[in-house]
């Protein structure tokens, strides 16, 4: 890669990350190329050069936001946890939920759910973002269930339910504010025995050769 191409790629990445940071504070509602350029301290045509029109820039922001959410969520998982162990699996779910539901994360989830609402209005344009939303959390969980002997269809169904439940509880906290955290925790504790039961009743795993 030439220095010119590398510099342009770095500039593109820096602008995109700065745009995501701006959206976390201000949301998408009033965003235009001109207002965003002003907020980032760059010329309007700089954004046009790197991203094209507003729709293309918005899509790039959506995808980067989804990638950032996935990366940050994985980073909070307890080190050394064994997903096939019931205690570890429950601990991971509690840890991830508490991190996601923390008040400091509210701007991230407000932007994330706003992003989903925008993307589903134009699913063709935003297919890459919606694919992140649909698969980024589900596929690793489904793979873990398959690893402990769950058939593929059941593994994916269970992963979908875990992700949907967790996201739904986080949305409840975002909507209700600090007063809703106790209610969400109580709901999670009702759900965890179901997950634990799936793991305890797992099929035996054939020894690797």
TrEMBL record:
Signal peptide location: none
Keywords: DNA-binding, Transcription, Transcription regulation
InterPro entries, sorted: Homeodomain-like_sf (IPR009057), HTH_TetR (IPR001647), Tet_transcr_reg_TetR-rel_C_sf (IPR036271)
Keyword Ligase: no
UniProt cross-references to SUPFAM superfamilies, sorted A to Z: Homeodomain-like (SSF46689), Tetracyclin repressor-like, C-terminal domain (SSF48498)
DNA-binding region: 32-51
A GO term for molecular function: DNA binding
Domain annotation HTH tetR-type: ranges: 9-69
Name this protein carries in UniProt: Transcriptional regulator, TetR family
């Amino acid at each position: 890669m030439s220095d010119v191409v590398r510099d342009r790629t770095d500039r593109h990445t820096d602008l995109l990350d700065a745009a995501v940071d701006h959206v976390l504070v201000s949301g998408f509602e009033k965003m235009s190329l001109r207002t965003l350029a002003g907020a980032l301290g760059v010329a309007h045509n700089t954004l046009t050069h790197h991203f094209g029109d507003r729709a293309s820039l918005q899509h790039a922001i959506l995808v980067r936001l989804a990638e950032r959410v996935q990366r940050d969520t994985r980073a909070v998982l307890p080190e050394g946890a064994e997903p096939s162990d019931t205690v570890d699996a429950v601990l991971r779910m509690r840890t991830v939920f508490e991190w996601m539901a923390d008040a400091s994360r509210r701007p991230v989830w407000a932007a994330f759910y706003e992003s989903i609402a925008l993307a589903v209005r134009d699913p063709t344009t935003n297919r890459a973002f919606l694919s992140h939303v649909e698969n980024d959390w589900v596929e690793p969980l489904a793979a873990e269930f398959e690893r402990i002997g769950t058939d593929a269809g059941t593994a994916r169904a269970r992963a979908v339910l875990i992700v949907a439940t967790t996201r739904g509880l986080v949305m409840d906290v975002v909507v209700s504010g600090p007063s809703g955290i106790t209610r969400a925790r109580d709901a999670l504790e009702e759900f965890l025995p179901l997950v634990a039961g799936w793991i305890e009743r797992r099929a035996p795993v054939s020894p690797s050769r």
